[in-house]
Amino acid sequence: MKRLKEAMLRGGVITGLAGLVLLGGCVQPTHSTGSGQAQSIDILEVDVPTSWGTGSGEGLEPQGWVRAFADPQLDALVNEAVDGNFQLQAGVARLEQAMAIARIEGAERLPSVSLTGGAQRSMSNNLSDPPVRFRTDRFDVTAVANWELDLWGRVRAQALAGGADAAAAESDFRALRLSIATRVAQAWFSAIEARQQEALAMETLTSFEANLTTVEERFRRGLSPALDLRLTRANVASARSNYNLRKRLADTAVRQLEVLLGRYPSGTLAVAETLPELEGIVPAGVPSDLLLRRPDLLSAEQRVAAADYRFAESKKSLLPAISLTARYGRASAELEDILKDSFDIWSLAGNLTAPLFQGGRLRANVDRSEAALAESIANYQNTALTAFREVESALVGEELLREQLAAVETSAEESVGAQELAEERYERGLVDIITVLESQRRAFTARSNMLTVKNDLLQNRLALYLALGGDY
């Protein structure tokens, strides 16, 4: 079991599914026929583009999406989460349950064999004169085999439904694994940004405190009014409050990342000092069929197939069931004779069972199964449209965020220059303190916004990888 968990967590093909008893192969979304035969069709009922043209050029070569950020520490953290995240361990357990249920549902296709044994002693008395007492002993051992002749395919449909559910559970697990890996990357970048915001807040506080020293000196010399002093002190207090806020947010971000890794949230994880640069751009003409590998879409597809098989099973439950029962064993009045060939017994019987009246239970089960199939098809359609929406949004977001980043970088550069100029002119008495404080506020806000947008650009690329089910 430990090796199975390791194989699942590492992302290999789960070969245990191939060993399920007669569960069939890969299934596709189906017509709502209840035939028990999966038929590949297009159930999305909307026009789907063959590719997305939002990309900006040739960009990066396809590669593992984690490696695209060129951050070895991020690689190590994702691997650690794959090994230690408790949500993934719970996902392994759920997958093992689904595989076991599939084996249970597939077991009815094979005969069931049981072995029974017994010992019996009976005594009867004749009260005649003289009285007579009779004692009878019987020892037996019997093998019994039962097998339903699946003439209508009910048992097969049940087995195939279990196999489709197991395949859906495998896709659910792969979706969870991809989600955890992406969340680790998201938390890593957010923690880096939070630490950078904390450092910026500390730098700003230090700068404001130095500015306060200058204003206090000018106030003592009678060069600045009390209003300038009070406004500057208020500015320092606000900067200190913001620093404490940024420090708290950074601490929270680190602890959240530690939990994703399966660590105790001690808040001691060291993060990188700067966010990685997002090299390259998304290539033009990303094919839309990449979505076919999305685990959640594959899972919804398999659940449509499972629902169709169960609909077929419910309809075939209305038909008669034919089963065979075979018995072979030995019986004797003496225990030592039980293994002798001369005491053989055997029987072969056929049974026909047809439902006549069950209060509408079977018909209601057919209606329920048909409704469940309609629900699974609608869920598949919604999952597909959501997938397209996520990809489209991420592709558009890539372009807009790059433009936004260029704008905030310019804003930060100009604002810092304006702050330096305002502070210099204030010392010369050419501007009032309001101008200085406003320039300081603008510079801090612009630099903070630049960090936020850089992180947003990385997060958007992560969202694209998640939406595509991997790299492009």
Description:
This protein is an alpha+beta fold. 57% of the residues lie in helices and 12% in strands. It is built from eight helices and six strands, in the order αβααββααβαββαα. The chain has helices spanning 2-10, 72-84, 86-106, 154-220, 226-260, 295-316, 361-427, 433-468; strands spanning 51-52, 112-126, 132-149, 286-287, 321-332, 344-353. The strands form two sheets. It has a four-stranded antiparallel beta sheet with strand order 2-3-5-6, with no helix packed on it. A two-stranded antiparallel sheet has the order 1-4. β2 (112-126) and β3 form a beta hairpin. The longest helix has 67 residues, at 154-220. The radius of gyration is 36 Å and the shape is elongated. Mean pLDDT is 82; it is low at 1-32, 37-41 and 55-63.
Secondary structure topology:
Blueprint lengths: L1 H9 L40 E2 L19 H13 L1 H21 L5 E15 L5 E18 L4 H67 L5 H35 L25 E2 L7 H22 L4 E12 L11 E10 L7 H67 L5 H36 L4
Helix pairs in contact: 2-4, 3-4, 4-5, 4-6, 4-8, 6-7, 7-8
For the structure shown, list the relevant keywords.
472 residues, alpha+beta, elongated, two-stranded antiparallel ribbon, four-stranded antiparallel beta sheet, disordered N terminus
Strand content: 5-15%
Element-level helix/strand string: HEHHEEHHEHEEHH
Q: Termini separation (Å)?
A: 34 Å
Principal-axis shape equals elongated
Rg calc: 36 Å
Count of DSSP strands: 6
Instruction: Summarize model confidence as the mean pLDDT.
Output: 82
Numbering strands along the chain, what is their spatial order in the largest sheet?
2-3-5-6
Major sheet? 4 strands, antiparallel
Estimated helix fraction: 55-70%
Spans with pLDDT under 50 lasting ≥5 residues?
1-32, 37-41, 55-63
Task: Output the number of helix runs.
Answer: 8
Structural class: alpha+beta
